[in-house]
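Question:
When you can, review this sequence-structure pair and walk me through the tokens.
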Amino acid sequence: MDLATCLKKMKLVGVLAFATVDSEGAPQIRNISAIHYEPDALYFFTARGKNFCKELMEDGRVQILAYTKYKEMIRLSGKAYAAAENEQKKWMDIIFEEQPYLANVYPGDTREIGIIFCIDKAEVEYFNLGVNPIFRETYILGDISVKEKGYYITESCIGCGKCMRHCPQKCIEKGTPFVIRQEHCLHCGNCYENCPVKAVIRK
């Protein structure tokens, strides 16, 4: 798996859930399909009068979720911004060509009420529940740094093996200290809750 494959899978899913936060701090989710994919960016269309547009203009943070029939979850977390004015028509024409249904929603010049947003810096997490053990990995779109997530076993480990016995995915290996194979970790916290010496930490 890699970033390019994740973007292809998102494109195949088609309709994606976009999550934002409104001015009162309440979560908001919309299903968006007016999206164009480039190797290094996503472009999407919405109308300027929508609350969705207002939230993007005020804050820009957005999380996008795709879920495939193979139990794969792809989550993109980034910041959207309005595409440059001189590129708005270019991307709008491409999106309307790729998504013919939009001509029924915004016929003729009514599409001019729309605005194109771009995401070119994001963290993309791939999470597959359809394999055993589960598989997860994080990829980077653009120039950003990623915060570590999940659980790690510190040098305080006494090697009792309790964490390993309680791991539902059997992704903990013996060592000094024991080691969690991050690509197979559910982030469920069972190791953390069962460690008798609190040697497991959460990033």
The first strand starts at residue 16 and ends at 21. The helical segments are 3-13, 51-58, 88-98, 102-105, 162-166, 190-194. The chain is about 20% helix and 35% strand. The mean pLDDT is 96.
